[in-house]
Design a protein that fits this description.
Strand 9 (about 200-205) and strand 10 form a beta hairpin. It contains 27 helices and 18 strands. It folds into 5 domains: about 5-90, Zinc finger, CHC2-typedomain (DNA Primase, Chain A); about 100-235, DNA primase, catalytic core, N-terminal domain (DNA primase DNAg catalytic core, N-terminal domain, Alpha-Beta Complex); about 245-360, Dna Topoisomerase Vi A Subunit, Chain: A, domain 2 (3-Layer(aba) Sandwich); about 370-455, no CATH class; about 500-645, DNAb Helicase, Chain A, CATH 1.10.860. It is of the alpha+beta class. It has a 5-stranded antiparallel β-sheet with strand order 1-2-3-4-5. A 5-stranded mixed β-sheet has the order 13-12-14-15-16, sandwiched between helices. The longest helix is centred in the C-terminal third of the chain and has 34 residues, at about 590-625.
Length: about 650
């Protein structure tokens, strides 16, 4: 269901954040706020602050911040719509009305949920009965039994064309509903529909709320085809948007479990039985963008765990290409490959949970996997081939849509390339450390050490830096240097630091007028501050404001002196530029302080963004002196200059 902004805002107004947080955290009132131990990290001294008036929480220890909806999502592993529905129900707030078509579709879906639940109960009963003896023996042999497996509600479909059909008819279910739910196959020639699952161990597939929406079946016939059979797509089941065990894994991840995506439901059950409760798997399809988005809503860096055979390596490579365009700040993947072509079920049964934990501990980040894949598959024997490998690597980096993430990848990969291709004379032979022989192809990944290093057959030079690779760097074109110089050479590519004065002014204003700390607590908490000592001052100001005591400017200074922040206060107060500002003077009227503070805060945020873009553009120009990179750096510097104006003097970039 889509909720309007107005509905969400009304819900936030009606929900008591202290009541919501208080269900999970023991809160103690301190003045107008409440304090408690943070539920998102381990701590002994309370640093988790809940502001009931403004409806937000903030932890001064780990930095988490949000409202009641965010809190429910993070602590209970719910999606945004699910959290909204839960909170609305808790305060008796009716959900937005649906139109008649929505109601009809929902009624039809509810009836199909009922049909699937009846089918699941039938399969469970058959597994326990006389016809399920062979299936029970199979599950026992695979160690898929016991209390940890019971929540998966495994079952058995008798080897009959009508056993399920007749049972559901006796419960009043229509045959057409069974067909629509994917339980029966309706022949094209118009013959009588018959059971889809026959002679198979049944794995119920549930949605995020635990409702059965489909089934997977594993044949017990050694010659049976296909080995695994899933329900077709139905109004309830769309393969590309469903992950097996999602609901339970989401709850486990919200409690600290690692989110692990594997290739099949047997692997998921084996992992859960071994104590890895955050396991999920796609169903009858390769990993999709929807799957990744679902996992990222649960955990910022899920682990993709693949079999160590050729198919598993190929799946990992697809995962790299799928994820790159979707990356966001703080959102990535890690990759774990199992040894010897084993799957998680094989490894756990053979060597136990500790061996599986070792594989997960050695999971490699996405950036490392991209680097290793491209280097492992590259032929680096000649300058032209090295240039080609670099171009191919950067082409993949260019697929990242989010600008900041893309630029950080370019910087990281550029540095690796620089270390890999050091100038001749810095080490190795004078040909760049290569023996002139063509690298052996193949591009496989081998296990060893903390991850999976690419294989290589060339001879490294003595100054080798990365994974045994020789060092070399291609020369920079003098013609391009002169071309750039003719258009305005770059005297310095150091990032501008015009925003530091804004940080100091805002903090001094808060110190001089404590009402700013309380009124703009969220803005102070999220304000970008680069200098560590200023960040310490910010934290102490927020701590003092959250204590519940009414502190004047002198009281704040006393608090800061006791907590070792007196020196930075004195430093700020000695700066003539800061003392000249209206908002840092005690006699300035309230409304003037407020107006100037809001202006400086907005300016500081803009400058911080531009400084980051300037640093990235300067790094890009260092790597490649092109007209586009020069123009980009100049444009950012000019925009910075227009904001800084006469206060900071001319920018030092050009």
């Amino acid at each position: 269901m889509r909720f309007s902004p107005r509905f969400v805002e009304e819900l936030r107004d009606r929900v008591s954040i202290t009541d919501v947080v208080g269900r999970k955290v023991k809160l103690v009132r301190r003045g107008r706020n409440h304090l408690g131990l943070c539920p998102f990290h381990s701590e002994k001294t309370p640093s988790f602050n809940v502001n009931a008036d403004k409806g937000f929480y903030h932890c001064f220890g780990c930095g988490v911040h949000g409202d009641a909806i965010t809190f429910v999502m993070e602590t209970e592993g719910l999606s945004f719509p699910e959290a909204v529905e839960q909170l609305a129900s808790s305060v008796g707030m009716p959900l937005p009305a649906r139109d008649e078509r929505d109601d009809a579709r929902e009624k039809s879906r509810r009836s199909l949920y009922d049909v699937m639940e009846l089918a699941s109960l039938f399969f469970e009963s058959e597994l326990k009965g006389s016809r399920g003896a062979k299936a029970r023996a199979y599950l026992d042999g695979r160690q898929l039994v016991g209390p940890s497996v019971e929540p998966f509600r495994l079952g058995f479909a008798p080897d009959s064309r009508s056993a399920l059909k007749e049972h559901l008819i006796s419960k009043g279910v229509l045959v057409e509903d069974m067909v629509e739910a994917g339980l029966l196959i309706a022949p094209d020639d118009g013959g009588a529909p018959y059971d889809r699952f026959r002679g198979r161990v049944i794995f119920p597939i549930a949605d995020g709320r635990g409702r059965v929406i489909a089934f997977g079946g594993r044949t017990l016939d050694p010659d049976g085809k296909p080995k695994y059979l899933n329900s077709p797509e139905t109004p309830l089941f769309k393969k590309s948007t469903v992950l097996f065990n999602l609901g339970a894994a989401r709850k486990a991840a919200s409690q600290g479990a690692m989110l692990i995506a594997v290739e099949g439901y047997v692997d998921v059950i084996a992992l859960v039985a071994a104590g890895f409760h955050g396991a999920v798997a796609p169903l009858g399809t390769a990993l999709t963008e929807e799957h990744l988005e679902m996992m990222w809503r649960i955990a910022p860096e899920p682990v993709l765990c693949f079999d160590g055979d050729a198919a598993g390596i190929k799946a990992a490579q697809r995962g790299i290409d799928l994820a790159l365009p979707l990356l966001e700040p703080g959102q990535s993947l890690r990759f774990a490959l199992l040894p010897g072509g084993q799957d998680p079920d094989d490894l756990i049964r053979a060597q136990g949970a500790a061996a599986m934990q070792t594989v997960l501990d050695e999971a490699v980040g996405l950036a490392d996997m991209l680097w290793r894949r491209e280097i492992a598959e590259a032929d680096l024997a000649t300058p032209e081939r090295r240039a080609g490998a670099e171009a191919n690597l950067m082409r993949h980096v260019g697929e990242i849509r989010e600008p900041k993430v893309r630029e950080h990848y370019r910087t990281a990969m550029g540095q690796r390339l620089k270390e890999l291709f050091q100038p001749a004379g810095s080490g190795g032979d004078r040909r760049g450390g290569y023996d002139g022989q063509r690298r052996q192809g193949g591009g496989g990944w081998s296990r060893g050490g903390p991850g999976y290093a690419p294989r290589a057959s060339f001879r490294p030079g003595p100054q080798d830096k990365i994974n045994g690779r020789p060092t070399w760097t291609p020369p920079v074109s003098e013609a391009l240097r002169r071309s750039v110089a003719g258009r305005g050479s770059v005297r310095s590519t150091e990032p501008l630091k015009a925003g530091a004065a804004g940080e100091e002014a805002l903090l001094l204003a808060g110190l001089t007028h404590p009402f700013l700390i309380e009124e703009f607590a969220e803005q102070f908490a999220s304000m970008p501050i680069a200098e560590p000592i200023l960040d310490k001052l910010r934290r102490e100001l927020l701590h003092a404001a959250s204590s519940g005591q009414t502190l004047d400017s002198q009281g704040l200074r006393d608090h800061l002196r006791l907590n070792g922040a007196a020196d930075i206060c004195e430093r700020l107060e000695r700066r003539p530029m800061l003392r000249a500002m209206a908002m840092t003077r005690r006699e300035t009227p309230h409304h003037e302080v407020l107006r100037e503070f809001q202006h400086v805060l907005a300016r500081h945020r803009k400058l911080t963004e531009l400084e980051s873009e300037h640093a990235q553009a300067a790094e890009a120009l260092k790597r490649e002196a092109t007209e586009d990179n020069v123009a980009r750096l100049r444009a950012i510097a000019e925009e910075l200059n227009s904001i800084i104006g006469a206060e900071a003097g001319p920018p030092d970039a050009f």
